[in-house]
TrEMBL record, chain A:
Any GO BP annotation: peptidoglycan biosynthetic process
Name of the molecule in the record: Penicillin-binding protein 1B
Pathway annotation from the record: Cell wall biogenesis; peptidoglycan biosynthesis; Glycan biosynthesis
Keyword Zinc-finger: no
TM region(s), chain numbering: 21-43
GO molecular function, one term: peptidoglycan glycosyltransferase activity
Bifunctional transglycosylase second domain ranges (all copies): 69-152
Subcellular location: Cell inner membrane
Residue ranges of domain Glycosyl transferase family in the record: 164-334
Coiled coil: none
Organism: Pseudomonas mangiferae
Gene: mrcB
Automatic annotation (TrEMBL), chain B:
Protein name (record): Tetratricopeptide repeat protein
Signal peptide, first to last residue: 1-24
InterPro entries recorded: TPR-like_helical_dom_sf
Keywords: Signal
Length: 772, 252
């Protein structure tokens, strides 16, 4: 066409002069065309390659444990509602659709969202939960029939991002809530369904405005062009880039249909910045700003998100709520003008507040300590690329409710201890696990738990002080022919010459000797003299072997000082050690991850429950008994000023030299917690194990309301009546008679019956513990 | 300028259009599947391949609601045809009568009153730990009863195991374990699945753990010892297996 026109014109005029010029022009045009065609082919290949392949790499998503609901579950209504709020459930008059909840007295009706778990899909269903006190008293379906068990969807607690991280939650077009597509088209590109990638009308307008303004300001881009810009091109603003963008937009429209392009747009668009993490796509934006899945968003929320497309930073609803509100209402006006919604609907939506959630409540990246643990466990099994690109779904045992309780216990205790000099330099770490399953449920790595940094729960390796002592006593009680809980031991000063020639002379904390005491009293009162004496009798290497069997491998030298906790461990190690004590002598590797699914919900890996019996349950039973006495009558007895006396607990305080480390490790039936307080520079603190860590522990247990410890009595253990004064065999009803557990055969011969007294008195004596 | 680019664009589009396959010829594969919460619903699971042949149908969860179903959770191999649920509690009461589930009942030296029961509300569903007779014909010993959630999950696990999904079964059993960590039947089933998975060492350990919670339940103890015997056989420890079988006999 070009050719014929130019040849005609040239023939009419002075052909001889113009012919060479025209020839050149023709050739140049041809060359240009070929070059351009080549460029177009190149662009086209680029468009298709990127668009038809995997469009995005998705960081792995980490989920908390799903809340299991069943009749008899220990759960308060308040905690339940906290969890529902974190999951973005809407309070409504009646639970009408997924993600809604209605509360009436003790009954909570909700419509769960459903989720794909490792062992199968949990359906989305209406569920009615009836609470009674601190328990779930009834669980039923929407139609009133009983429901055995139901799971909520798990809270998303973070992701594993690469250095420059874009994050998104991919959505399908049919997950878009009502109004989203119409609003997007109405606000960003009214011609979307009619143009072929570029809208000449918009371009002309933009060109005119830009020409008159002298600068490139006006967009006039179609949705397709915006997608191309974000997807393939840099942020540079130039005519060349604009043209490339237009070409690519046309190419994209040529190959893919409108819904495809729209879906890609919904997932690509940038909607906010969360620290290092770029929030892309409406799916993630919905979670990020409203803690809700996209499909549940209402008109006012849709209008806000679409309004933010124009300037996610400028219209950030958390930082600039007024701007964002104005923009949202403007969008609503546009919707009325375009006939998408009625004036009444828009007016109603305008009445609504912005509705964005507060940052840091239970939102993403709020639990750096636990996520750090998860990452470390994952890095043993996966390559970094797998974790940052494949969209894996990581299911963990993290319990956000327990985490919040441990955090507030820590904060409140530190505040309460605020009067003590030097408390402001004290750092903290805490590990909470389930003693039955070995699952980590909460973890604190810093006294400011929401700030990522040095994870003391895993990395602060500090002298454990008296936390070692149960290992000494366990070593003894494994030899029932030699030691029972009521064996006599001497709590007297002594000194030994170590292998290195140095004289070691242990001292009690109160600098006193306590004479001849029962074996268990040495542990209950954390006496150093009797414990060290006992440990030397047993042999330091044997005690260290016990520590090893409890689950902690260490290379401590077999010095006598190790018997009093000169060896260093991390809080996590201590938790492992006490886990074995709490679970009847069965060692369980502590786990934070339950399972991993691929991006499309296929089971990939499981981290199964594993146990190994390391100790005779009888010996463990006796040690637990002595550790209960720590709480009843020993160094941990202050717990019962805050906790009910019928709550049986076991634990041990630990204080390192000069109060540099304040430890407490202890457990109930269903909760194990280890607390460490100390300074990063290893300086002195104003705290002992009892005045510091134990206070945090107690505060946590008070909030967590655990089940009393109740280890079943092993077959080889018998309960015998003994005289509390002299340890001789006694009988029920005798004065001073108390019941003590013994490995069968090691108990004292029963004494003669005294008659008369009701055994109930003796039980009371037992509860009161021994006076010494 | 603008015009030039437009014409160039038009030409390139024409060329590109000829040079490339037509629309739809290249499938759009989106390997980064949606990660949103709502996506795993059965309703739009078209793009989700079924993980395994018989993974977790929704139906097992409804089983416990069916009073007449009489679900027998476990028939210990070799012991007898009688289901565990109907074993007698044994003559002597167990030393620890701790309820098996973390329900409101907590025993110990001083049992705490269970708050869940104090409400006057008519509870059609009885809290865990208390025999209700709902799931069985009645007349069973208290400690042989399984609660609704545990029973439901064991049933699910059994179906998964039956369909060859041992990992799924294992996972469901661990769910049950979290609800009732001290129920030896759960540990028994977990040990059984581990054995089927070829992990004889863990099977024995789990059974040993189960034994620590099976005081006063001789039939269950026998089953656990038999399972330990199988695990030892599997590891070539004939002598140990013999000892375990002897213990099983003594237990009964």
């Amino acid at each position: 066409m070009t050719r014929s026109r130019s040849s005609r014109s040239s023939s009419k005029r002075s052909a001889s002069r113009l012919r060479p010029w025209l020839g050149w022009a023709l050739k140049l045009a041809l060359v240009g065309l070929v070059v351009l065609a080549g460029f177009a082919v190149y662009l086209d290949a680029q468009v298709q390659e990127k668009f038809s392949g995997r469009r995005w790499t998705i960081p792995a998503k980490v989920y908390a444990r799903p809340l299991e609901l069943f009749t008899g579950l220990k759960l308060t209504k308040d905690d339940f509602l906290t969890e529902l709020d974190a999951l973005g459930y809407r309070r409504e008059g009646s639970a009408s659709g997924p993600g809604s909840v209605s509360v009436a007295g003790n009954a909570v009706e909700l419509y769960t969202r459903g989720f794909q778990f490792y062992e199968g899909a949990e359906p989305s269903q209406p569920v009615r939960v009836r609470f009674s006190g601190t328990y779930v008293a009834g669980l039923s379906k929407g139609d009133g029939s009983d429901l055995a068990v139901a799971r909520l969807e798990p809270l998303l607690i973070g992701g594993l991002y690469p250095a420059h991280h874009e994050d998104r939650i991919l959505i399908k077009l049919d997950q878009a809530p009502p109004y989203l597509l119409d609003t997007l088209v109405a606000v960003e590109d009214r011609e979307f369904y009619h143009h072929h990638g570029v809208s000449p009308k918009s371009i002309a307008r933009a060109f005119w405005i830009n020409a008159t303004a002298g600068q490139l300001r006006q967009g006039g881009s179609t949705l397709t062009q915006q997608l191309v810009k974000n997807f393939f091109l840099t942020n540079e603003r130039s005519i060349t880039r604009k043209a490339t963008e237009a070409m690519m937009a046309v190419l994209l429209e040529l190959h893919y249909d409108k819904p495809d392009i729209l879906e890609a747009y919904l997932n690509e668009v940038f909607l906010g910045q969360d620290g290092q993490r770029a929030v892309h796509g409406f799916g993630l934006a919905s979670q990020y700003f409203f803690s809700q899945p996209l499909s549940e968003l209402k008109l006012h929320q849709v209008a806000l998100l679409v309004g933010m497309v124009k300037g996610p930073t400028y219209y950030n609803p958390r930082r600039y709520p007024e701007r964002a509100l104005e923009r949202r209402n403007l969008v609503l006006d546009v919707l009325v003008e375009q006939g998408v919604v009625s004036a009444e609907e828009a007016a109603q939506a305008k009445q609504k507040p912005l509705g964005v959630t507060k940052r840091g409540s239970l939102a993403d990246s709020s639990f750096p300590g636990f996520l750090d643990l998860v990452k470390r466990q994952l890095r043993q099994d996966y390559r970094d690329e797998d974790l940052t690109e494949e969209g894996l779904r990581i299911f963990t045992s993290f319990d956000p409710i327990l985490q919040l309780k441990s955090e507030s216990a820590l904060t409140e205790t530190l505040k309460r201890l605020g009067g003590r000099k030097g408390i402001e330099d004290v750092e903290a770490a805490m590990v909470v696990s389930n003693p039955e399953t070995g699952e980590i449920q909460a973890l604190i790595g810093s006294r400011q738990p929401r700030f990522a940094g040095f994870n003391r729960a895993l990395d602060a390796v500090r002298p454990i002080g008296s936390l070692i002592k149960p290992a000494v006593y366990l070593t003894a009680l494994e030899r029932p022919s030699q030691y029972t809980l009521t064996s006599w031991v001497a709590d007297e000063p002594f000194s030994v010459k170590g292998q290195d020639g140095q004289v070691w002379k242990p001292q009690n904390y109160d600098r006193k000797a306590h004479g001849t005491i029962f074996l268990y009293q040495g542990l209950a009162n954390s006496y150093n003299l009797s414990t060290a004496k006992l440990g030397l009798e047993l042999g330091v290497p044997n005690v260290l072997k016990t520590v090893e069997r409890l689950g902690v491998s260490q290379d401590w030298p077999a010095f006598p000082s190790m018997l009093l906790g000169a060896g260093s461990l991390s809080p996590m190690n201590v938790a492992t050690m006490y886990q074995t004590l709490a679970s009847g002598g069965f060692n369980t590797p502590l786990r934070g991850i339950r399972s991993v699914l691929t991006a499309d919900g296929q089971p990939l890996k499981r981290y199964p429950f594993q146990v190994e019996q390391r100790f005779d349950p009888g010996a463990i039973y006796l040690v637990q008994n002595a550790m209960q006495r720590v709480m009843r009558e020993g160094t941990g007895r202050s717990v019962y000023s805050q906790l009910p006396s019928n709550l049986t607990l076991a634990g041990k305080t630990g204080t390192s030299n000069d109060s540099r480390d304040s430890w407490f490790a202890g457990f109930s039936q269903d909760l194990l917690a280890v607390v460490w307080l100390g300074r990063d520079d290893n300086g002195k603190t104003p705290l002992t194990g009892a005045t510091g860590a134990l206070q945090v522990w107690t505060g946590f247990m008070r909030k967590a309301d655990p089940l009393p410890l109740d280890m079943p009595v092993p077959n080889n253990v018998t309960l015998a009546w003994v005289d509390a004064a002299n340890g001789q065999g006694s009988a029920a009803g005798c004065p001073n008679a108390v019941q003590m557990p013994y490995i069968r055969g090691s108990e004292p011969a029963p004494g003669p019956a005294c008659g008369g007294d009701a055994p109930a008195d003796s039980v009371m004596d037992w509860v009161r513990g021994w006076l010494n | 300028m603008n015009k030039l680019w437009l014409s160039v664009l038009a030409a390139s589009v024409m060329l590109a259009g000829c040079a490339t396959p037509q629309r739809g010829a290249i499938p759009v594969v989106d390997s980064g599947a949606p990660l949103s919460n709502e996506e795993p619903l059965a309703g739009n699971g078209a793009y989700r391949p079924t993980p395994r042949a018989a993974t977790a149908p929704a139906q097992p969860r409804s089983v416990p609601q069916n009073d007449d179903s009489g679900v027998v959770v476990m028939v210990p191999p070799g012991a007898s045809a009688a289901p565990i649920q109907s074993y007698p509690a044994g003559g002597s009461a167990p030393l620890s009568s701790a309820p098996i589930t973390p329900g409101p009942v907590t025993s110990g030296p001083a049992p705490t009153p269970a708050p869940a029961y104090t409400t006057p509300s008519s509870a059609p569903s009885v809290p865990t730990g208390i025999p209700s007779g709902v799931h069985s014909g009645g007349g069973l010993a208290a400690d042989e009863q399984l609660d609704g959630p545990v029973l439901a999950l064991l049933t699910t696990a059994q179906q998964q195991q039956g369909g060859g999904d041992l990992n799924g079964a294992s996972s469901s059993l661990e769910r049950a374990q979290r609800i009732a960590p001290r129920e030896p039947q759960v540990l028994y089933r977990l040990a059984e699945v581990r054995l089927a998975q070829g992990d004889a060492a863990q099977a024995e350990q789990l059974a040993q753990r189960g034994l620590t919670y099976a005081n006063g339940r001789p039939a269950l103890q026998a089953s656990l010892w038999n399972l330990i015997a199988q695990a030892r056989d599997r590891r070539g420890d004939a002598a140990g297996a013999g000892q375990a079988r002897e213990k099983a006999r003594v237990s009964l």
